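re the bet — no i am not wrong, look at it urself. input seq straight from the record:
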Amino acid sequence: MNSGKTVLVVDDDAAVRDVLRRSLENNGYTVTCCANGESALLIARERSFDAIIIDYRMPGINGAIVAATIRVLIPGAIIIGISGSDDGRNLLAAGAHVFLRKPVDFDHLLSILRGNRPV
């Protein structure tokens, strides 16, 4: 089951990246992962994605800056902000469409990726 959709996962926590990558790939998504905002922006300048999942708290460039920049680079992408703390307001203000608190409810994430995201 290949959805044909591409997702960029940006999180400095290797375990979070791995769980999201495996779970998304098992549901037919093509997944690219990176560990920081700088890498995410380099990748986003070279490739387009259907969705980007961005952690807020990372070394270097934080998720809000990444979200705001990617919103310009890939205007049609769904930007999903994630964090283990209450950073949702910052991510949403920067251009994320949705904020999910860690640990991420994977069924909710899939619903968003499938187009059932809140307005």
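see?? The chain has a mean pLDDT of 94. told u. also The chain has one domain: 6-113. so pay up
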